[in-house]
Amino acid sequence: MNFYSTNNTDHQVEFKEAVFNSMPQDKGLYMPASIPKLSDKFLNNLDEYTLPEIAFKVASAMLDGAIPEEDLKEIIHDAINFLAPVVKLEEPVYVLELFHGPSLAFKDFGARFMSRVMSWFLSVGEKQLDVLVATSGDTGGAVALGFLGVPDTRVTILYPKGKVSEIQELQLTTNGQNIRALEIDGTFDDCQALVKQAFTDKELNEKFRLTSANSINIARLIPQTFYYFNAYAQLLRQGKNKVVFSVPSGNFGNIGAGLLAWKMGLPVHRFIAATNANDTVPAYLKTGIYEPKPSVQTLSNAMDVGNPSNWARIADLFKEDVSALTGLISGYSYDDEQTKEAIQQVFDKYNYVVCPHTAIAWKALKEWEVANPSNDITGVFLSTAHPCKFPDAFPAEISDAIVVPESVKELEGKEKQAVALGKDFEGFKAFLLANN
Ligand SMILES: *Cc1c(COP(=O)(O)O)cnc(C)c1O
């Protein structure tokens, strides 16, 4: 399977190149040159397959031999080694829990699969891969834990001092092995600027094999399709086959993967794009005008994106067929007050705690259901992170009810190891050169 750039479909590369480049030089995004349609036999019998079995079927159709099947199977079993259960809260409202991986966020699916794919492509004798990531919280944890112990790779994470939650910081700074954390005296934008400059620095690029493990990497998108198929499989087992997915969205990689699954044949009735005040896409779905804006800060900060990078992929999937797109996706956006209300309502109604991102997806689903009454549609909202990652988002009554996973309790006993650096490039570069 070749992958083309959304800016130039004639520019095609093999999977390996798409993975290591992350982004084509023309600043488009890589997309599969043709999207495979899965067989009806598989789609109608999804309920007979486990998550790793589904993942293997989907990935092998998409990669079309780029990785031999036995190796791909091994990569999947190693990467997708946790569950993604669909849990009923009330009829017909279900939650797809995507936070059972090591960093307690859905980004584990993408990061774990990508890390193993990259490692597989590094042939014997090749230079170690140096992954540089800037994070505002969730991405860094998923990438750090995704690459932890993966042969021939090393990860350097830059995070803004004092601006990530305690658990996020522990996930970044207590790994050791091939993971190191830099605590930058600056903002997330400063961290990102340092990483970007490193990629254009001649000396660093001669010395190291740098890669970004960026969230727009195609190897992060593909594994996110797995859990849509798997959620549908779980509902089929309960005799339900008309499903709406409500997805808390920022950069639109998560919902983009859902739409890719739909293109591969998953019969989803509708997608709901749920955002915070950064409402570029819901506004577009309402007005037909796509107008990126600078991002504003909110309580659901992993979705503070005013110009979602994966939108180019979604537009590409629909090839400017705007009516097909608006026919399949509804958009809703909520401010912080509404997010807090939703967290409280979910707690009062179901005695269940959702993180601020997830709360937005629940509220959008409820609003859609009120406007579209039906007795045969099942609504599923995606829970993108465990609420314990955002302890400051809750009143005491709710935070006391959060069941903290064992893995987090273990983290709390560990010592933070991070190198403190300023936001100047020279200091960052000197660190990289001195610590090879
Ligand atoms: C990254 C993230 C999102 C946004 O996902 P996109 O793929 O960027 O739309 C939502 N919730 C949480 C908790 C996240 O970490």
Describe the structure.
With 436 residues, the chain is an alpha/beta fold. It has a domain at 55-106 and 220-406: Rossmann fold (3-Layer(aba) Sandwich), CATH 3.40.50.1100. It has 19 helices and 14 strands. It has helices spanning 15-21, 40-44, 51-63, 69-79, 107-121, 138-147, 166-173, 188-200, 202-207, 218-236, 253-263, 280-287, 311-318, 322-328, 336-350, 356-371, 396-399, 406-412, 425-434, and strands spanning 2-5, 8-14, 30-32, 86-90, 93-97, 129-134, 153-160, 179-184, 209-211, 243-248, 270-275, 329-333, 378-383, 419-421. It has a six-stranded mixed sheet with strand order 4-5-13-10-11-12, with helices on both faces. A five-stranded parallel sheet has the order 9-6-7-8-14. The longest helix has 19 residues, at 218-236. The protein is globular, with a radius of gyration of 21 Å. It binds pyridoxal-5'-phosphate (PLP). Pyridoxal-5'-phosphate is lined by residues 105, 107, 138, 248-254, 302-303, 357, 384-385. GO terms for molecular function: pyridoxal phosphate binding; threonine synthase activity. This is Threonine synthase. Pathway: Amino-acid biosynthesis; L-threonine biosynthesis; L-threonine from L-aspartate: step 5/5.
